[in-house]
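Dissemination and training. As part of the outreach component of the grant, students in the summer workshop were shown how a complex can be specified as a set of sequence lines and then modelled as a single object. The example used during the hands-on session is reproduced here so that future cohorts can follow it. Participants entered these lines:
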Amino acid sequence: MCGIAGLIHRGKSSNVGSELQGMLQALKHRGEDSTGYALYGDTDGKNFIMRFKVGENVGEGSSSIMEDVSVYDERKKIVDETLAEMGAKVVKEERTLPYSLRYEIDYDTKDLLDFSQRIESIPGVEILSMGKSLEVIKDLGNAKMVCDRYSLDKVVGTHAIGHARMATESGVDIKSAHPFWGYPFSDVSVVHNGQLTNYWNNRRVLENKGMRFMSECDSELIAVYIAEKMRHGATLEEGMKESLTGLDGVFTYFVATKDSLGMAKDTMAAKPLVLYESDDLVAMGSEEIAIRSVLPQEIDTYDPFDGEVKVWQI
Amino acid sequence: MANLKTVSKKSKAQSMGMHTEVLTGRTQQKFFNPDEAENFYYFGTYDVDFNKRTELDVKDMTAPEANKEIDNLMSQGYGTIVIKNPQGKHSLGVGILNKLNLIFEGSLGYFGMGSCDGPIVRINGRVGWSCAENLMAGKVVIEKNAGSCFGAAIRGGDLICKGSVGARTGIDMKGGTIIIGGDAGAFTGFMMQRGRIIILGDVGINLGDSMYDGTIFVGGEIGSYGSDAVDSELTSSDQDWLKRKLKVAEIGENFDVSKMKKIVAGKKLWNYDNLEPTEKKGAI
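and obtained this result:
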């Protein structure tokens, strides 16, 4: 059991960091092994924002191997050198935690595949997100702990999705935490609640097509599956609709791009989702209490039906 | 007793005292004997006065605290309780075993009104998954939409949703009536064993999948039939019952019930003889 939540403001910005924190904290009983945020903040759109990690959180409850902090410094140094070699200029650098970094990069490219492959060829380095608006922040603990750790409550933007995780089939670590970046697409992220039963078959097929997997978490398949469809010209909505038959198992998932937010529910409707939709706001979550954290007044909500796909624009 | 070596299997079972009527569902009903009224005691029930009314704001309460307070109010004889600010909390109003007028001014989360026996409930909002699970008797009316597993395993009473409901409505139900004013999702009536479901709108795929018994009435389009769910003739007595039920439920009073579809179990999927495995062994 995991919890997912998402919201999109139409035609305006809001304090999405704080709002999503409230929604995910309301769902913490569904799992607090790790919590992740995909925030689409207000930026000038000039530079890429790269969130990446050079190690794991090895705190209490983690399934990761302890490493010396000096290893993180060494990996960071190699990342800096690689960026310089590629002609990517780091405009701003933040190191919130020893293993977690945020770079603003001046880099002119439309194809992030080569860029990502070179960065991730450095052992122990993983790009959590890459985009001109998207920032994926994920770590161990519940929503409030992660929000406080990364000061997310001040983030202003148009939309966001997040995930409260109860680890089941893969480890308690950041690499298995949601959201997943839709590698190698700028500003694409995914969160998922459920289980995918044809994970390995699909993974083998997609890896043969050149796609990359960073974890053994079945949910990562959704991000890669849709990214691969989009790579071949499908729209987000088309990719999501194809996933209803291409992915086997039970699932409700959200996908977000720079200017849109989508949801899909499997054909058996086995996983919960409650949805609120108005002209200026869409909010949804695994349980209504998530929506209530941003809309405490009486509202009309509903459960999307089986096999339903919806996409909203900002 | 007949000679068991010479009689047919069917007669053999009868000779052993086993009943052989066609099974349309085993009753679990226990009939009340007025002579034993004095000995009858239902734990956790109260004599309440419907004219004694109070309000309870649960905004800052947890679900157990709110339920405990409802129990406390019933113990003081309050027969009409209005709950303010439920705000989608889970498990509100569970385990009420006596008559009570209960009104929720807002929406409930999961498992609202679970395992109840007798209350009349009106929810002026939406309900989450598994509303009124295991309802034994009473009436629960939801003014807006409902989540999945609506009325799971109910054994009696009326459960009414004026909006639309999610998947698996009436799963495993063993009695009672579920009425939906809008649409219903996939697997409605999944493995239902008794009771009736009425859906005025459309219904999703796999309607009545693996149902043992019971009846489903659908006013709109059906996504697909589930395994062993088949059409049946809508009789005039069915129509009379539907009209009556919809009127009492304050929903679809003017709905043209003559065009509704009636779905029942085809009775090919399950073993519909009337013998338990041990009985069979003895008869063979």
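The domain at 43-283 of chain B is CATH 2.160.20.60 (Pectate Lyase C-like). Students were then asked to discuss how this feature might be tested experimentally.
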